[in-house]
Amino acid sequence: MNPPRTTELLRAAWGTVLVTQPRCAFALRDTARLPGLAVFAARLLGARQLTQAAITALAPTPRVIRLGAAVDTLHACTGIGLAVLVPRWRRTALADAAVAAGFAVGGQLRVRRARHRQALGWLVPVATTTNTASSSPSVSTDSSRNRSFTLQLPTGKPGTDTAR
Predict the structure, then answer these.
(1) Cα(84)–Cα(70) distance, rounded to whole angstroms?
(2) Phi-psi region of 156 (alpha: psi -120 to 50; beta: other; left: phi over 0)
(3) What interhelical angle do 62-85 and 90-120 show, nearest 10?
(4) Are residue 28 and residue 76 in the same domain, yes or no?
(5) Which one, of 10, 50, 28, lies nearest residue 96 by Cα?
(6) Which of 114, 157, 161 is nearest to 136 (CA)?
(7) Which domain holds residue 131?
(8) How far is CA 133 from CA 70, 130, 136, 138, 147, in A?
(9) Helix count (H) and strand count (E) of the chain?
């Protein structure tokens, strides 16, 4: 299993702050007068962040990452809606929406980079049995999914790499 990426670590840290110290997340407001519902909502959002970080770290597939980015986009939109509808929460809601939008953009960029690398042929899945006489070096084996990967450097001409 791959180690968690920076995005998952940042998300887990933010979720931990929201769950354990929700008043710190409201640094833009007078935290002495925070309603209990705001503290509860911050803890609930923190639990969502922690859950999403764990799921993405355990199964970092493009589908999971895209779904997480969609959830983050929805989160950002609701934050913008709250900022419009409740002016006294505007700064806090917009700050939260900015964090959610950052996670959404990061997820989409991560999927695009992975798709781009695969299109260039840098990391290509191959059959579980590898030919040792092949000129392509075997980089690693993912035994949990029973796949091997071969590193292939681009030759400069698209579609000319036939070794897999």
Answers:
(1) 21
(2) left
(3) 160
(4) yes
(5) 28
(6) 161
(7) 121-164
(8) 44, 9, 9, 11, 18
(9) 5, 3
Are 100 and 162 in the same domain?
no
105 and 151 fall within a common domain:
no
Q: Name the residue type at position 98.
A: A
Contact status, residue 95 vs residue 80, Cβ threshold 8 Å: no
The two structure tokens encoding residue 60: 């970092």
Do the beta carbons of residue 122 and residue 150 sit within 8 Å?
A: no
| Rounded CA separation 38/144 (Å) | 42
Which two three-digit tokens encode residue 140?
A: 């690693």
Residues contacting residue 118 through CB under 8 Å, at least 6 positions apart: 124
Strand partners, 147: 142
Per-residue model confidence as pLDDT tens for the chain (164 residues): 455 688 889 999 999 999 998 887 776 565 567 788 888 989 999 999 999 999 999 988 889 999 999 999 999 999 999 999 998 888 888 999 999 999 999 988 888 887 766 666 555 444 344 444 545 444 444 455 555 444 555 555 555 544 44
